[in-house]
Design goal:
Helices cover 42% and strands 31% of the residues. By secondary structure, it is an alpha+beta fold. The chain has a 4-stranded antiparallel beta sheet. A hairpin with a 2-residue loop joins strand 2 and strand 3. The chain is elongated, with a radius of gyration of 18 Å.
């Protein structure tokens, strides 16, 4: 491998690690619905099924992933919605109000 090839390979590796770190930070404080039942009932949040329905309506497609995220006393559902034309949308639903 040439010096130039090694530098390119290293740059790609660094970019991949940076992206992974950003994705991990974005999901800090988030959990899948299957693990969130206690948190939902304890804090009077809308049920996960209602959040899925609202995210599908808002995103115009089918939810392919949804998590409950907490930041202090604030809760949101973050959903990934696959639209009918194949477009992927990220949708946020307030877990207390459903908006």
């Amino acid at each position: 491998m040439t010096c130039h090839g090694f530098k390119l390979f290293a740059a790609i590796g660094i970019a991949a690690l940076t992206s992974l770190a950003a994705a991990t930070a974005a999901n800090a404080g988030c959990m899948p619905l299957g693990s969130a039942g206690g948190l939902i009932s304890k804090n009077g949040l809308i049920p996960g099924t209602a959040a899925v329905n609202k995210a599908q309506a808002k995103g115009g497609g089918k939810v392919i992933k949804i998590v409950l995220c907490q930041n202090g006393n604030s809760f949101v559902y973050q959903a990934t919605v696959l639209g009918k034309q194949g477009a992927v949308k990220n949708v946020t639903i307030n877990a207390k109000t459903g908006q």
